[in-house]
């Protein structure tokens, strides 16, 4: 009965007040977007980042109103990409966040690394370097799917 009354009261509030209530009562999460990039040879595109874990990792960043995966990768590498389907959504690694993993394929551009990156290379999925453990698992589960999508688009 109490929940029904609360629902009637809440639903009668203006949307801006409903948002304020939710903003103050619900847990907040960062949303990360990363890409499992596949080149025309089916090789996985990975980067060594200047900050964070020393292992090779996906390209990407945290989602914000003006940030998208294609823009983030272009800013970090100079490479233009086509973003494909979401391959996985998971709880992220070490941080309280939701992480969306997209497939992508490079379209062109001139590679120029930002200050955030040390190196970008493509690797055969069967011969990976030292990749962060959670992302190695994603590669093992999803690289074939990303490559099939990229091949259909190319």
Itemize the secondary structure elements and their pairings.
Elements: H1 2-12, H2 15-25, E1 30-38, E2 44-49, E3 59-62, H3 69-77, E4 79-90, E5 97-109, E6 117-123, H4 133-153
Parallel strand pairs: 1-5
Antiparallel strand pairs: 1-2, 1-3, 2-6, 4-5
Tally the helices.
4
**Overall mean confidence score, pLDDT:** 90
Q: Give the distance, in angstroms, between the N- and C-terminal Cα atoms.
A: 58 Å
Give helix and strand order, one letter per element, not per position.
HHEEEHEEEH
Radius of gyration: 19 Å
The largest β sheet comes out as: 6 strands, mixed
**What is the approximate shape?**
elongated
**Helical content (DSSP H or I, runs of 4+):** 25-40%
The counted number of beta strands is 6
- Identify low-pLDDT runs: none
Q: What is the beta-strand fraction?
A: 25-35%
Structural class: alpha+beta
């Amino acid at each position: 009965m109490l929940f029904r009354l609360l629902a009637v009261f809440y639903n009668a509030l203006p949307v801006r007040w409903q948002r304020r209530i939710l903003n103050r009562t619900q847990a907040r999460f960062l949303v990360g977007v990363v890409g499992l990039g596949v080149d025309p040879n089916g090789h996985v595109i990975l980067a060594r980042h200047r900050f964070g874990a020393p292992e090779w990792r996906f390209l990407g960043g945290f989602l914000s109103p003006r940030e998208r995966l294609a823009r983030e990768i272009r800013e970090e590498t100079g490479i233009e990409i086509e973003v494909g389907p979401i391959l996985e959504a998971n709880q992220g690694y070490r941080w309280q966040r939701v992480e969306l993993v997209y497939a992508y394929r490079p379209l062109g551009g001139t590679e120029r690394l930002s200050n955030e990156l040390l190196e970008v290379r493509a690797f055969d999925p069967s011969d990976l370097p030292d990749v962060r453990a959670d992302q190695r698992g994603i590669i093992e589960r999803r690289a074939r799917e990303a490559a099939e999508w990229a091949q259909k688009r190319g």
